Amino acid sequence: MSASDKPAALGAPRTLSPLAVVGATLTIGAHWSAGTLSVGVLTWPQVMVAAYFTGCYALLFSLLAVLESVRRMRRFRAPDGRIDVAALWRAVFQADSAVMGCMLVFGAILAISGNANLVQIYRSATTVWYDPVLWQFEQPLWRAVLRFRLVPLAWWESIYHLMWLYVLLVLALLVKARRTESSVTLAVAIVLAFYGTTAIALRFPVAGPEYYHPASFAHLRGTLSGQLQAYLQAYQAGRIAQNGLLYGTMAMPSLHVAITAMATWFVGRHWPRALCCAVPLALLIWASTIVLGWHYALDGVAALALAALCVASARAIVRRCWRAAGG
């Protein structure tokens, strides 16, 4: 049994204990900090979103099993040409890993949900934004971005919204390969990144280019990003109540870039040859956050530092929890 598999042998409770500890601590802390602004420890929409992401993950995990079955089909072909489908499926679909992965995703999304209470604080307490500083610093970049729109917005929209699909795919690959420590570390790091970005935003509020200079992004009206930005702006202005899912108008650092960078780091750690595809995709996702007016370029730079900090912290938490649990 490899070192990465050993914690899984302790059972789901101990394997997922780092996520449970981090999630419970941050969720309760955010609820307590928000006081009367809190929407509660958990809301029904948050549970529904957690179930949705878990379902998406399960589909990706099953798809990976199907692809592997096609690759290994010859090994299960009998002399008469028939394929032992049952034996093949047992070999490629590890039920324990599938369940563990679903629990990991469901728990991570629920843990993330508590961050909505910190967002409530951000909405009510923030009165000064530092967008003028970043906009002025990046003027040459924004002149180029707004002047040369060679690629259709729909293409950039597709790239931008690939982030969660990419992250869930990486997580599914880690779980299927029984990289237990890495999969749990990635999940914990994502939770830390959500709370970390909001904590930074409370100290250094940045709304984002589209909110600071809306006239420059009039071309986004009617697009999905334009609609989401208008919806979040309405929440920030107090016209829409928090349902436990709204993130507000905060850009520094970019959560999108941070999560993408963390997933790419794990790809490089376990499948370095795949970086030839993962790195260009990560860079395109970063570029999409700029083109669509969500973030300044410096938001992405700060996100890389946050990603490194979250991965390092998550790894230390996972190892300490497992040692305490006898893993």
From TrEMBL:
- Originating species: Rugamonas apoptosis
Q: Does the keyword Transmembrane apply?
A: yes
Tell me which InterPro entries the record gives: Aur1/Ipt1 (IPR026841), PAP2/HPO_sf (IPR036938)
Pfam entry (one): PAP2_3
Taxonomic lineage is: Bacteria, Pseudomonadati, Pseudomonadota, Betaproteobacteria, Burkholderiales
> Does this entry carry the keyword Membrane?
yes
Q: Which GO terms describe its cellular component?
A: membrane
Q: Where are the transmembrane segments?
A: 16-34, 46-67, 88-112, 159-177, 184-204, 245-267, 274-294, 300-318
> What is the name of this protein?
Phosphatase PAP2 family protein
**Keyword annotations of the record:** Membrane, Transmembrane, Transmembrane helix
Q: Where is the Inositolphosphotransferase Aur1/Ipt1 domain?
A: 156-311
